[in-house]
Amino acid sequence: MTYPPPKALHHLPPSRNKRVRSAIAAIRLLLRRKQLQEAAVQLQQLQQADPANVEIALLQAELLTLAGDHDRSCQLLKQILSQHPGLVPALVLSARAHTAAQRHLDALDALQLAHELSADDHGIATQLADTLTILRRTADAVKVLAPAARKSKSSSDLAKVAALHDKAGNLDLCLDTYDRLNLPLPDLHVLKAGALLARGRKAEALASIEEARRSGPGNASLHLFIAKNFATEFDPTQQAREIAAILASPNNAGLPAEDRARLNFALGLAHERNGNFNEAFRAIEQANRHAAPENFTSDQQLEKVAQGIADHFTKARLAQLGPAGHASQQPVFVTGLPRSGTTLVEQIVASHPDAASVGELELIPALKQSLVSLQSRDIKRCAQAWLAAVPAANSRQARIVDKSISTALHTGLAVLMFPKARIVFVRRHPMDIYWSAYREMFGANAVTFTYSPEMLAHRIKFSEHIMSSWQQRLPERILTVRYEDIVMNAEALTRRIIAHTGLEWSNDCLSFHKSNTVVRTASMAQVREPIYKSSIGKWQAYRKQLAPVTSALADLIANYEKTS
Fold first, then answer.
1. What's the topology of domain 18-119?
2. 40, CA 20 to 30 Å: which among 55, 110, 330, 348?
3. Structural Rg of the chain based on CA atoms
4. Each residue of 482-509: pLDDT tens digit?
5. Residue 1: what pLDDT?
6. In this structure, which topology does domain 300-562 adopt according to CATH?
């Protein structure tokens, strides 16, 4: 039975007590200023004076959220909403607390009701769209945000809508929305080129890049895009000369670090194409320094969680929890380290007539807090959330490929949701992974560990350890393949991969580069080409500069080469 939504309540009647009203206003000011200690003292005094006041309880919940005590905040808000189910400020605050606690499905419930009760509230609409985006429900996010963006005419909102249209597969709407943005022409043309190239429309993307060159030849994003995606269309000597001039110009002394990173990555790639490996290494090393965040977030906590998941989910434990998961056989999780060859394997499977790809969904980290409860309801709910992220056009395919890098660290959670899922681990020579990742500028907030030589080497070692652990535990669920083997013996390995997914063989899988699957990763230009061998051993040109890394990874390299 469907019940009507509660009556919207946007605010509570103010207290009749003037002193209480004044104290509430003072506490609100303290919370805005993040003076939490003083706010807590005054709030405690106020609660003693008026313990039944719901407005005071809301302030207490906000204080708890700001202080990081999200569980207590959510519990208090649950009590408030049981008495006032349509109280919009409580729903919005509940969503904030759940989001901060990484419980995005609970945040979604609160925001959907708040949006239903306050459809014209721009702030609620943008929060709901952000949560839907986190949960990869792109089409739903567009439906919420596009009307809000039309009203606000905000460039920030329009940029989000354009990106969502792109992810949802609406290229024309994406390009139209880009045209409504007040962006410098070179940036606009580069964004359009990216959307076109992701769909394999290289000639149109190149035309857009030529427009960008005419309107802003010094644009950093333009030079990096050319270096990564149009290596054969532009003269690397000329490009290196242009970039060096931009970096040396006194007019660019205040160039942001991010643009300096882009230009140095592009310069390094241009030098590499010319065989100037010393200059290439220096430029790429400089690029990583500029790209690195001021304060690297330690991987220790992430690795501790990943190891904890591996330790907890023994084969017996996963078998015991199996009935709590979803029975679907659709998911195929392709995972490994960045630049290990996961995009190649994804495209091989997705080119099958009965398969489709959702790209790098990266949804498990957003569901992790709900999954670790090990409650049957939460596990099924998370599995449904994963299925809800699959575009409607692909939802009937027999296999759906999720190429998320994070699955390597959270394999147990993937199997918990889908006990019948197939998993493919992709391995590659550790030094080829290292160099390929180190010379790459990834998207914002993506994999910043690649910008630190020490952190990148450490992640390679840890990922190999954790993947080996899962392979030993779940050999019937996991197929491990080596990038080099796919390149050297494509048909045999492709047949093995397709057999592991449970699909019948299709010759289409040997022509993956002709597929119209959208690819948005760093490999989007390469996967439109047949398999090539030139990427194997590329690091050897930098053997001298990479000596400290080869020393740090010596055991891993020896083991990998021994099994080749």
1. 1.25.40
2. 110
3. 26
4. 999 999 999 999 999 999 999 999 999 9
5. 40
6. Rossmann fold (3.40.50)
